[in-house]
Design a protein that fits this description.
It is built from no helices and 21 strands. The chain is mainly β. The protein has one domain. The mean pLDDT is 91. It comes from Methanoplanus limicola DSM 2279.
Length: 152
């Protein structure tokens, strides 16, 4: 499958299917409805578009997981992770902050920073330096800390 490169950023075509494991040496922008049947490893920042799927685990530096996305394995990030509305993820382990938006389903979440939960989520155990649970409309009012603004 062809992946486009712009400097240190790689971009997949919309609606692409990747049958095996994928490793990207840089940042990776994934458009909506892209599907990975194996492991996804990104050395930089991952922006996983809405309604995409990953059949196994995801490893990256930072991640923004689009709405309606399904990841059947754990997400392991050395930095921050933002999970947008209605996504489904096995579990999250992050070295930075984690933002969970309304309607997501996730297993256990562990982070070294602050864990922000906006609205109603279905989850396992939540571990973080601080865990802040806020109303879903807090996101609409821009009540995010400056360093943790989501890309949703």
């Amino acid at each position: 499958m062809k992946i486009y490169r712009d400097g240190n950023t790689y971009i997949a075509p919309k609606g692409t299917y990747f049958e095996g494991n994928v490793k990207i040496n840089g940042d990776f922008i994934v458009p909506p409805c892209t599907h990975f049947w194996g492991i996804l490893v990104v050395d930089g920042r991952l922006e996983l578009g809405p309604n995409s799927t990953v059949g196994s685990r995801v490893t990256c530096r930072e991640a923004v997981i689009g709405s309606g996305t399904e990841i059947k394995g754990p997400v392991n990030a050395s930095g921050s992770v933002t999970v947008c509305d209605r996504a489904r993820i096995s579990s999250i382990n992050a070295g930075g902050d984690v933002i969970l938006r309304p309607g997501i389903e996730v297993g256990d979440v562990k982070c070294e920073g602050t864990l922000f939960v906006y609205g109603k989520v279905k989850s396992g155990k939540l571990f973080g330096r601080q865990v802040k649970v806020l109303r879903a409309d807090a996101a609409a009012n821009n009540d995010f800390p400056e360093e943790a603004t989501p890309g949703c």
